[in-house]
User: Fold these one by one.
Assistant:
Number 1:
Amino acid sequence: MRDHGGDIDRARARFGAGDWIDLSTGINRTPWPAGPLSGHALHALPTAADLTRLRQAAAGWFGCNPALVLPVAGASAAIQLLPHVLPRGRAAVLSPTYNEHAASLRAAGWRVDEPRTIDALHGAGLAVIVNPNNPDGRNWTPDKIRALASRVGHLIVDESFADPRPDLSVAEVLPENATVLRSFGKFWGLAGLRLGFVIAQPPVARQLAERAGPWPLSGPAIQIGTAALADTAWTRATITWLAEAALHLDQTLGKAGARLVGGTHLFRLYDLPGAAQMQERLASNHIWSRTFPYNPRWLRLGLPARDEFARLHAALGQRTMLT
C-alpha cells in the first residue's frame, strides 16, 4: 500500500475510536450542503442529458468549452486510466508530489523519472505536474505551464487543489497536447461522491470515456455535482473562509513551534523537529494529521472547520481565538 492521507482507520486502531477530526487530507471540512436526492438520481441509470448538464456546470466553473470536459469517478480514476491511453515511453513526474502519478505510470509499463525542477521535465514524452503541488503547495502561472507544454510530448496538469486559486488554471486556454485533471471532492468537501473531471482534447477524452465504461458516475454524484458547481455564492464565500482559516492555522502551529514551508488553501505543510511526536500528541486528542516517510520533519494539516479549531487549540494547550 502506498502512503496516503485519509487513513483514519489506522489512527483509530492505534489511538482508539471516538469523534475524530481527520486533517490528514486536503478535503474541505465545511462541505457544500447537499440537499435531498431525487428519485431519478437514486433509481434511474444516468442519462446523456444528465451528464451534459454536469459538463456544462463544470465548464462554467473551469472557464472552458463543455465539449472538452469529461466527468470521471474522481481525479484518481483518471490518474489510473491515462497511462493506458497515451503512447508509452519516458515520463517525468515533478516531485515530490502525489505518489499515485508515478506509481500508476510504472504499473502501466512506463519508464518514470522524478526530477525536482520544472526545467528538468523538458524533453519528456509525458510530463506530469501538480499545480498547486501536493504536499508543498508550489505553484506555477498558466504562462509557465503553457511554456512547459511546448517542451514536452504530452503534459498532464493535476489541478486537484486549484479551486481556491482559479488564477492558476490552464483549463480556459488548453494547450493541444495538455490534459487537465480536476477534483470535486476536495474543495466542495464531498469526497465520498467520487467525482472529478478531465479537461482534454477530443481524441484523449474519447479514449478515456471508452475505458471508463457507459455509466462511470452514480446518479447522486451527477445531481449533487451539477448543483454545487453552479452555486457561485457558496463558492465565493468558501474561498474567502479558506484563506482566513489558512492564516489562522499558520498562527496556531507557529505558536506550537512549527514553521510554515508551503501549502494551499486546503492544506498547510509545516517543518518541525518533532513532527512524529506532534502527530501523536494531536492523535491522542483524536485529531489526525499527515507525516511523510521521506521527510521526518514535515507535518501536513488540512484546514479545520470553524467549530473544530477549539479542539485543535486545546490539544496544543492554547486559548481559543477564533469566534
Number 2:
Amino acid sequence: MKIVILDGYTENPGDLSWEGFEKIGQLKVYDRSSLTDSGEVIGRIGDAAAVITNKTPVGADVFDACLSIRYVGVLAAGYNIVDVNAAKAKGVMVTNIPAYGTAAVGQFAIALLLEICHHIGHHDRAVHEGRWESNPDWCFWDYPLIELVGKTMGIIGFGRIGQTTGTIAKALGMKVLAFDSFQNDAGRQIGDYVSLDDLLKQSDVVALHCPLFPETTGIINKAVIAKMKDGVIILNNSRGPLVVEQDMADALNSGKVAAAGLDVVSSEPIKGDNPLLKAKNCIISPHISWASKESRQRLMDIAVENLNAFVKGNPVNVVNK
C-alpha cells in the first residue's frame, strides 16, 4: 500500500517517528502541501491508496483525479477539510482522531486564564529588563492581579475537553456552570447545567469548548457579549469562527470584556488586519493547545491504529459510514 502524508510537519517536526505508518506500507511524507492548489495535492497523491492530511484540503476534484484513493485519515478531530460526501460517493473511507488532546487542551485553557490573572510573562520580562532591580519598593505589578477562588466559570460545550477544563477550574476554587445540549452525570459531578442566558449573566469567565457548527458560528457576538457581566474574561481555544472578532475587539477596547485568551482565530495563520491584534488585553497564541509532545504522540498512535484497522477490515473512527 502506498501512503502519502500531505502535511506532516506540525504533527511531527522531528521529535516523533513515522515508523508505525512505515510498517503498513510504502510511505511518502511531505512537510507541507498547498492549501489552495489542488493540482499540487493531486500530483503528490498520485496512485496512493491511503492519504493522511491535517489541514490540507482534499476535495471532490482530488477524488475525481486520484481514483486509487481508498482511505483518507485526518490528523485531527475536525474533518471539514475533506469532502466526506465526495469521498463516500467514490467508496473512500474517511477517519478522524476524536480524542487525543483532551488533557492538553483543557490545561491550555487554564494556562490562558492564569496568564490573564497574573501576567507572568510580562512581569518576567520586566525583571530581566532591570525594572525590579531599580524599583524603590520590594515588589511591583503593572496589571491588576486576579484571584479565582469564588469566581464563576461558564463553559459553553461540556464534552470531554470542557469537563477537563471544568475539573481544573473547580480545583482552583471556582464555581462551574455549563451549557451543553447533551447533559450527563459526569458533567453534573463537576458543575451545574444551566441555560445559555443564565451562564452568560452569572459567569466571571466564559470558556468556549463547543464544536464549530452552523448554529455555533459566531456564538460570541455583540448581542451575546451584552448579556455578560461587565469585566468578563473570555477564553477560546476551540475554533476561531465561534467568535465575531470585530465584536470581541470592540468589547475589549470598551472594557466590557476585561480580557480575552485566544488560541484560535477565524483565519489561520492570523492575518495582519485581524482586529484582535490591536485590541486591548487580548492574549493570542498560535493554535498550540493541542501540540504537547504527549498529545501529538497519542494522535500519531491513534492515526496508525485507524489505518491498521482499515487494512484489516475492521475500521474505527469512521466519519462517513
